[in-house]
Fold:
Amino acid sequence: MKVRKDGVLETTPVSAASLPLPSGAATSAKQLADGHNVTIDNSTGAAAVNIQDGGNSITIDGTVTATPSGTQDVDVVANSIGLATSSGQLADGHNVTVDNASGASAVNIQDGGNSITVDGAVAATQSGTWNVTDVSGTVSLPTGAATAAGQLTDGHNVVVTSSALPTGAATAANQLADGHGVVLPVLRSSTTTLVSAVTFNNTTTADTSSSVDCRLYRDGILYYELTESGTATDISMIIEGSYDDSNWMKIGDGFPSQLKFSDAAIANVTNLDEYVRIPQLPPYIRLQTDAVGTDASNTFTLSAYWTMTD
Structure:
């Protein structure tokens, strides 16, 4: 220690051991032992203690709980906690047998573009159209299914014998003779008398026949027989048609709707026997007859018949 004495600095030895120390001053007795290694005791639950490794490493005894954030790279070392080891690997090329006998949920399997071999019987429910090809082995057919043994021989030619035919089936004995020539029956027809020998004289100058139902026929023919006595003027026959057997009208104008004969026309004819055809009949017809210039000695006598055909 240097002390100024008489304006001159002099060095005076001082023993620190004898110097008084302030309260709390560090002494050798209070220095950290063990190379100043520090043990931090925070068991009383005080605030967290921040430690740094100074670029080195920190060794922690006991269990460390880590909460990852983001992607963590973990190096796992197998030990006794059950991690996979070579002794715990699957044998037989890692083939896996799935045992679902306890009735748990269905196990989904995929073939990865290859195939899956199934042992035992497979029950399949058809949906849509199935094309089954390249079937080998034994195939069970339903009762009555066609088999090769049940196919017809001789190119499937069939010979039919009369003994195998049902009752009433056509046989040669029942075929039509004469080259199957068929004689058609005569067309259906019906004839009705419209006027039966009516004499037109001084008391009878007109006559209207009963109506005839023609609905079942297509064509009609009017036959008439006319004679004259004396010199009556003329007689006309008018064929009338009706759609309801109530309202009547002529079947057109002139022939063949109206047939008119004068005395001069039949003067030299003893009996005028003629007929006229009426095609496409109405539902009902009747004959209206009118005579002019008749009296007790000058008369016309008329008979008329109506025939229909289909």
Summary: The chain has a mean pLDDT of 79.
